[in-house]
Predict the structure.
Amino acid sequence: LHSGVVRDEWVYYKGSVLHAEQKSVNFLQRFVHCFSAPEDTVCDVFCGTGFTVEAALILERAFVGANVDEV
């Protein structure tokens, strides 16, 4: 695991603009890159604004997501 890669940006996380738990696409790309391989499917059952979807697609991963809030 490359925890240092993710930890550095987490320190600067200041909250959300569009959703209560929103993270930047760049931040989520780091997670997707560190914890999945290109042939993997990324699953986010609390996908909110869809930024995890965007990060997965940028990194050419398949994606499954769901959210109960209206966006």
Remarks:
- Helices lie at 3-10, 25-35, 51-58.
